[in-house]
Design goal:
This protein is about 35% helix and about 20% strand. The strands form 4 sheets. Strands 1, 2, 3, 4, 5, 16, 17 and 18 form an 8-stranded mixed beta sheet that branches. Strands 11-12-13-14-15 form a 5-stranded parallel beta sheet. Helix 9 links the parallel strand 12 and strand 13. The longest helix has 17 residues. The chain is globular. The protein starts with a helix and ends with a strand.
Amino acid sequence: MLAGVMAAAHAPAVAQAPSPSIAGNSTTLFENVRIFNGKNAALSAPSHVLVKGNTIERISAAPIDVTAEPGVQVVPGNGRVIMPGLIDMHWHAMLVRPTPAMLLSSDIGYSTLLAGAEATATLMRGFTTVRDMGGPSFSLKRAIDEGLLPGPRIYPSGAMITITSGHGDFRQLSDLPRTIGGMLARVEQLGGSMIADSPDEVRMRVREQLMQGASQIKLTAGGGVASPFSPLDVSTFTEAELRAAVEAAENWGTYVCTHAYTSAAIQRSIAAGVRCIEHGHLMDDATARLMAEKGIWLSTQPFLDLSGASALGPAEQAKMRQVVGGTETVYALAKKYGLKTAFGTDILFSQELAERQGAMLAALTRWHTPAEALVMATSTNAELLTLSGPRNPYPVRLGVVEEGAMADLLVVDGNPLENLDLVADPDRRFLVIMKDGKIYKNTLPQ
């Protein structure tokens, strides 16, 4: 028994959803608001929304009497729009502000503090939830959940898993060869990525991320833009290696998503049981049709220009131009085949670009109506989050304004269903930002 107590005392803390005490027991009443509920393409009639603790308790067209309840905070909407908090399905919480060189040379403590500052900025842009697609974000997630600093709730993948020379392998040629079982590279020591070159190694690295609290697993099934030794046309993991990751994740009740631009990388991922493809910008018609037939999710990003390319070398800039050139194709194919499509931004190594997070959402109007884009960034994204099953760190209803749902709410100055550019100006247009029932911003006249 003593041995069990000692083991428990030294066991790492598994990340948990915030407790009611962290969310608070306050009551907030939003009066006279028109609701975009995350699903419908039209606003509600003038309504009232009552939040208790961190949950939407009641929505009513008639006034809600709270005079008998002490300490109620009343927010006068005056006919403004209330909507769900936004969700970014491809975020890198630890990789936004540092440069690659800074990340590899700094200690993880400084990098986490830097990421904490960015997490607060992310929340103040109206993004109340992010799915982290690679990076050591477990400590940051825990700090946010415990109320130590403001930030979005994080669905962490942990280290993205790659192969030797794959996307995410940031070693230099001077680091080669590495002996099997030898020392970890610096990026592995930091938890940014893990290199695995066999099914057994893949299983181990997947299980390590799950042990730390990963809600889903990410592998890089093809080449990437930022990695110096990873051409875009290369397919990396074998089907057996990908299947090993899928089996390990499914044993934990969750799923695998793969970074994949090309048709070959996507088709191999699907054959191995992967349930979500990240990017897909270079896929062909037959691959999109296959994704539709198999019910595979597409998590993609509206890359429209070379923003951020100045920090890359000539070869990486050429790869970025190729990806940007495929953006029109991937969205056209998604619409043609009705793919289950999620919205994300995949912003790396630039605080300036992160400030355009909402502008990237607004860019979806190139292919979608404002309502379609907002549904994608709220309830559709929330549906994909549920694939984590029992590994879901927040088993609550997200992405909707409905009774019983989590109180992640934005009050907007203007109608985003008519003008989606409003989300690109959160400082002026998001008058109230609530996450988990707690108001982090309120500039409405009281």
